[in-house]
């Protein structure tokens, strides 16, 4: 185990507890929308999809722990490295799908909350950007190596792999850019609300942080 890293037990406990709390919140939300207010919408369905992908991400992380996550690579057997990388490959895909569904849920909720035509057009444009980014990210994650299995199976010969670090950095930059876009979208409308300045800015901060 590398010095300063969380123990496997800590990782598993955290990865189990957090999704349980999130799932509880999602279940309560869906129950309220379906049975209390009876006005469930696309934002709720995207939230459920994100939750399922988040749970899949948790499962893959726990599997990585079982195969030596936290150990130095030199301490892993070939089989452990093989299995850990395969789980990591799956984790990248479901994690990015979870991010996509989360962003779409927020954007669909914007459309529910703010009926202004101009704002809905802006949200639709943002949705197109998010969809294009998500397709690119998942496609790039799957085909970062060819053959695909070369990502985790280093015994395969005649392999072509992209620069994984550059791929990851590009993904992080675009992910943050779409997050920022989603965060600032409603600020202009919120700034025009007829509320005391303190309440208006507090509301803008809440939306920006949630985005």
UniProtKB/TrEMBL annotation:
Keyword NAD: no
Subcellular location(s) per record: Membrane
Keywords linked to the UniProt accession: Membrane, Transmembrane, Transmembrane helix
Transmembrane segments annotated in the record for this chain: 6-32, 44-62, 82-101, 121-149, 165-190
Domain Rhodopsin positions: 28-209
Native organism: Cercospora zeae-maydis SCOH1-5
Cellular component aspect of the GO annotation: membrane
Signal peptide (from-to): none
Protein name: Rhodopsin domain-containing protein
One protein family per Pfam: Fung_rhodopsin
Main location: membrane
Membrane topology designation: Multi-pass membrane protein
Protein family according to the UniProt entry: Belongs to the SAT4 family.
UniProt cross-references to InterPro entries, sorted A to Z: Rhodopsin_dom_fungi, SAT4-like
């Amino acid at each position: 185990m590398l010095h300063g890293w969380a123990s496997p037990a800590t990782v598993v406990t955290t990865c189990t507890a957090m999704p349980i709390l999130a799932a509880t919140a999602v279940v309560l939300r869906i129950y309220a929308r379906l049975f209390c207010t009876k006005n469930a919408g696309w934002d709720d369905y995207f939230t459920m999809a994100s939750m399922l992908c988040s749970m899949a991400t948790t499962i893959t992380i726990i599997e990585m722990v079982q195969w030596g996550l936290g150990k130095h690579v030199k301490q892993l057997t070939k089989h452990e490295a093989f299995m850990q990388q395969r789980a990591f490959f799956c984790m990248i895909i479901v994690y990015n799908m979870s991010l996509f569904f989360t962003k779409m849920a927020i954007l669909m909720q914007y459309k529910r909350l703010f009926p202004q035509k101009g704002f809905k057009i802006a949200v639709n444009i943002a949705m197109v950007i998010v969809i294009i980014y998500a397709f690119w990210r998942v496609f790039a994650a799957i085909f970062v190596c060819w053959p695909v299995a070369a990502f985790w199976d280093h015994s395969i010969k005649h392999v072509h792999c992209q620069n994984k670090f550059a791929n990851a950095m590009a993904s992080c930059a675009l992910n943050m850019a779409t997050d920022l876009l989603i965060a600032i979208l409603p600020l202009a409308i919120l700034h025009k609300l007829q509320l005391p300045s303190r309440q208006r800015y507090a509301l803008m901060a809440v939306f920006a942080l949630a985005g």
